[in-house]
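**User:** Hello, beginner here. Are you able to go through the protein record under this note? It all follows right here:
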Amino acid sequence: MDQLASTQLLLSALVLASIYALVALGLNLIYGTMRLLNVAHGELMMLGGYTSFWAFELLGVGTLWSMFGAIALTAALGALCYVTVFRYVVRNRELAARLESNSLLIFFGFSIIIQNGLSIAFSADQRSYTYLNGIFALGDARVELNRLAVLGVGAAATAACVLFFRFSRLGLATRALIQQRDAASLVGINADRIQLLVFCVGFGMAGLAGSLVSMTETVTPFGGFPYTISAFIVIILGGLGNLTGGILGAVLLATIEIYGVALTSSAYRSILVYGVFIAILFLRPQGLLGRKMR
């Protein structure tokens, strides 16, 4: 019990929650706005991770700087994907009638392309580097500076996105599109412009998350799938399209993982996570902060 009350576990849960919140935020935006299931989200994280890895190895640029390059690269890829593929898919009546299933197949193809492209370019070997590995003492906890950087940057980026979509004009237009697409179009909201913005932000947040993760974990072309699954669990917990609920879901999932493993063992991690996930689907399928549909 003393271990459960330690600052060490609390910090670990917060660091993991900041990563989950970033990943789920981008996934939630794309699904909430356009009903597209981006199963390639984890691969975008790995792309961001490789960007920071090579920036550090080849140029000596630290992650706190190279993360802006990771955001720019993945956001540009998001704009390219929307303009070349998904703009046509959304506008085509036959394809739009099966939008979720079609998007699942398209993004699955994207994930395979990114995985194998990274594998061909950089091999399938795990890559890691040492950055901000000093130890910081906080009460009874000892935490590496790179983990504090992950927590600080992740929390700041998540808060900035939530504030943007809550108070800015573009953000309010995006929320209107998420809540009622037809009514948003009737009042003059440019859906195409908003969708392009959502793709750029969603992909960019995945790149930022991958860049931050590369400071503390290895990156590999095939290491993104677990993050994709975790992101889907987070947005189901918080409610589809609910950004604030997604943050709550990220904190809940990270807490279950860290404290659940501390109470049992790492072998029970998947049982704990998916057990809570199934319980939420049965007891409150609209999510913790979602609204019931009539």
Observations:
- The CA atoms of residues 10 and 255 lie 8 Å apart.
